[in-house]
Amino acid sequence: MITKDGFSAKDIFTREKGFAYNDFIILPGYIDFNPEDVVLESNLTRNIRLKSPLVSSPMDTVTEHKMAIGLALQGGIGIIHYNNTVEEQAAEVKKVKRFENGFIMDPMVLSPEHLIHDIDVIKERHGFSGIPITEKGTLNSKLLGIVTNRDTDFESDRMKKLGQVMTRELLTARVGVSLSEANNILKESKKGKLPIVDNEGNLVALMCRNDLVKNREYPMASKDPKKQLMVGAAVSTRPESKDRLSELVKAGVNVLIIDAAQGNSVYQIELIKFIKRMYPDIEVVGGNIVTEEQCENLIKAGVDALRIGMGPGSICTTQTTMSVGRAQATAVYRTAAYSRKFGIPVIADGGISTIGHIAKALALGASTVMMGSMFAGTHEAPGEYFYENGVRLKKYRGMASQEALEAGGSKRYFADDTKIKVAQGVSGSVVDKGSLQDYIPYLLMGLKHSFQDMGTRDISQLHEYLNSGELRFEIRSVSAQAEGHVHDMYSYKEPKYM
């Protein structure tokens, strides 16, 4: 009998050294299925199951309602950041929960005094151009018309006012119209958009024809029992979080992530117990942690999942500045192995910059992966694009960067009451990745190919192979890492997505 090649995860990740994702490779398995046969369903928490294992980080340059909606439609989930007021965070959650109702409750609105050029800018930034025109250029103002591509496509003067080109004869519906009634109106009229107005003719919402086909286009969408998109929100361990909790629960949040750089604290343990006592139906994710001892404390407190990672993010300097943390691959394996005994899933948070890193995190026992920089450059991330040396970029900053700390991020680092705030991260920029509509399917297909190479059809089987030792690993030298990437080329063009 041939001795099995490579090493088990236990052989490698229980050594005295800590390993990052690039330090090892997974040996190939046996293929008897196609990539399309791979199923990527997995548990985010004890009681929340997702069709894709992708989670966006609660950072103010990563996740607000557009990111959360985009991810939920593709089977993942977004976690709304808390670097804002209680009311603002709750409003972001509400926007996600209302989205699948079919009505856009905060449509972009312009006035008759705006220009066609303003429509061009909106189309470039947001990808749509059908804009309601109201008297004041705001919601809850008298609806005067609508501007679509048909009104502007052949206008050479882009400085012409919208009041001169807008369509004034509109089909509208009264506030209170049901979703099915609004659907029928759109179907019969063959119009693209249906403004919803009150008794005084003020615009209160908008419905688009595209929304009629969302269920057909997004069969993987993450929905709760009420058929609304699922969304998470982050809270700190500070006293103000109790006010946030109440508003977030009212807004319909499905899962709460206690966002702390070092999660093994009396403050977090007390908050977990408080949430489970006051809101027993809300799933709670504890973290961030990297050791088995930390797992034990938070599991005893009642968490439904754990968030793993301390310092591996691309904009994080915690390990250098504080000399505390753990190599991410080792952290994921050790915490997942311990938490599995109690049926608690772990979320691998940080250190992921390629599809291969996602596959490795899952192969080490994570049930889902949380990403910041991978999503920060997408259209759905907060912020505007800008150009630097001809490259289209978006801002991306760590929540422990000096900039974010001054804006409120210090709550995550037990530093909001200190006079001197020590940065544990940086601010920077990331390249435009386009829309999640294209990006997520690419990531998921790449992940399916990786599973095929490993010889596993789903995440449950992957974890079975991990635990039994069937899944084999090997440490890579620096030369092997270089060999495994592009090398010895005079020049080459990188793919759009890595």
Integer average pLDDT: 88
Total individual domains: 2
The number of helical runs is 18
Q: What's the β-strand tally?
A: 20
* Approximate strand percentage: 15-25%
**CATH architecture label of the largest domain:** Alpha-Beta Barrel
Order the strands across the largest sheet as they lie in space. Answer: 4-5-11-12-13-14-15-16
End-to-end Cα distance, whole Å, is 39 Å
Task: Give the helix level as a range of percent.
Answer: 25-40%
Q: How does the major sheet shape up?
A: 8 strands, parallel, barrel
Looking at the structure, the CATH topology of the largest domain is TIM Barrel
Principal-axes geometry comes out as globular
The rounded Rg comes to 24 Å
SSE-based structural type:
alpha/beta
Overall CATH class of the largest domain: Alpha Beta
CATH superfamily of the largest domain: Aldolase class I
Which stretches are poorly predicted, pLDDT < 50 over at least 5 residues? Answer: none
